[in-house]
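Each field is set out as follows.
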Amino acid sequence: QVQLIDSGGGSVQAGGSLRLSCAASGRTFTNYAMGWFRQAPGDERVFVAAISRSGGTTYYANSAKGRFSISRDNTKNTVYLHMNSLKPGDTAVYYCAAASATTQYTLWTQVNDYPYWGPGTQVTVSS
């Protein structure tokens, strides 16, 4: 199985930026599509962005389009979430996740699609 460690969270003011990182170990990183999810207090965990195992295909939740960018560096076994123009509504614990992908184009957007999760990193955006 694959182990994930997400990091890079913090406290920023509205309009600021953060870059989250997720380092993977244990199995061949390029076998996995990767995703980012977030969970605010009292809410369900929701999809933010996903990237195929090659990095050639990405998909975003409407809330992330135009502000967030997902990328991966397969030489470093790391996936990133670049977040710009942050809003207080983006405050949540952010989790990276991994799921086996049979093709280089496959990605997943549902929580239940992902068997492997990082411990989460807190992002707090103040107004």
The CA atoms of residues 78 and 84 lie 19 Å apart. The longest strand covers residues 92-100. The two ends are 40 Å apart (CA to CA).
